[in-house]
Each structure stands twice: as structure tokens, then as C-alpha cells.
Design a protein that fits this description.
This protein is mainly alpha-helical and 196 residues long. It is 74% helix and 0% strand. The N and C termini lie far apart (100 Å).
Length: 196
């Protein structure tokens, strides 16, 4: 189970910064939790083949545990995906989109848990096939939007002409005489008193 998650772990580390940061660990955890409902629902419908071959699979030895593990891991995906934007690999909007996807995934796992049969197992398995493409699609869109927003703000605030753009020199007075002529003359001792 752990070995199958390493592709996401190493891929993120190599492609991003060359280090295994929190984003890489989040992707590793995502694939780790996803694989249980994916494989358990698949193995349920072929448990007769496992039994004939002599393999003591969880779907053969304990059907209830098989479904319970599926539900537990799909539920774990909800808080995990909500926390992913805090690692910096996607925009904060990813939390909202992931809740919708993961809630439906958990709903299918709940149906499989309450009534483990070929239909509920097939529904869970089929959604698990499209789950990762959907979620990674949202991740990519969120990351692109996050980078675009950050680049625009950084460019805007680091521009050396930023203040000049806000207040062009043509609007400002050229000298102190134009800014406040009375005060300037008073300070020079040239103010004439009003006639009595």
C-alpha cells in the first residue's frame, strides 16, 4: 500500500523544488487513502476467484471489514483534501471542490458498507476510476490560478514606477510656491498686512 504511493511523492518532489515537502506528502497520503476503496470494491466482485485460488483476501475472509476499511479511508480524504491548499500546491478554492467530490465518494462507500453487494461495489469501483483524474484536474487548475494571481500581485507591487502610476508627476505641483503660496511667502517674511 505504501509503495504504490511513492510515484506521487517523488514526482512532486522532483518537479517542484527537488525536495520532499508537505505538498509531496499530501499527494502521497491522497493516493494512499484512495487505493483502499478502489481495490476493496474491485476485490469484492471477484472474491470467488480469490477463494478458488486459495488467496486469503479481506474480501473473502471478512466482508464487513472490507467494506468498513473502504468507508474509513474515503472519509479520511475529506479533511486531507481540505488541508491541501495550506501546503501551497493549489488554490484555496480546491477545498470547496474537493468536499463535493469526496462527499459523493464517501456516500458510495457508505452504501457499500451498509449493503455490500455487487451493485454497490461496482458503483464505488467505477467512481474510484474517475476520482483521481477529477481531483488532480482541480489541483492543476487551482495551482495555475494560484500562480497567476501571485505573479500578477508580485509584478504589480514590485514595479519601481508603482507610486508614479498611482499619482503621476503631472498632477503634483512643481514647487512649494504652487503647493501653498501663502504659507511659503509667510515663511519668507513677504506677507503684507491687510489695510486698516
Amino acid at each position: 500500500a505504501v509503495v504504490s504511493t511513492q510515484s506521487g511523492h517523488y514526482g512532486r518532489g522532483a518537479a517542484a523544488s527537488g525536495t520532499l515537502d508537505s505538498g509531496a506528502l499530501a499527494l502521497c497520503a491522497l493516493i494512499y487513502f484512495w487505493q483502499f476503496p478502489h481495490f476493496n470494491s474491485l476485490s469484492f466482485n471477484v472474491r470467488q476467484d480469490y477463494c478458488r485460488a486459495g488467496y486469503n483476501m479481506m474480501s473473502v475472509t471478512d466482508v464487513a471489514l472490507n467494506a468498513r476499511v473502504s468507508l474509513r479511508n474515503t472519509a479520511a480524504l475529506i479533511p486531507l483534501c481540505m488541508a491541501i491548499p495550506f501546503t501551497g500546491i493549489s488554490h484555496c478554492s480546491f477545498s470547496f471542490y474537493s468536499v463535493v467530490v469526496n462527499t459523493y465518494f464517501t456516500y458510495l462507500a457508505w452504501n457499500f458498507y451498509k449493503s455490500p453487494n455487487k451493485q454497490t461495489a461496482r458503483e464505488l469501483f467505477r467512481f474510484s476510476l474517475v476520482y483521481l483524474p477529477i481531483l488532480f484536474g482541480f489541483l492543476a487548475i487551482g495551482y495555475a490560478f494560484k500562480e497567476r494571481t501571485a505573479t500578477s500581485e508580485e509584478k504589480h507591487h514590485s514595479d519601481k514606477h508603482y507610486m508614479k502610476d498611482l499619482c503621476p508627476s503631472s498632477v503634483l505641483p512643481a514647487s512649494a510656491d504652487q503647493l501653498c503660496p501663502v504659507s511659503h511667502k509667510a515663511s519668507s517674511g513677504n506677507v503684507t498686512s491687510a489695510p486698516s
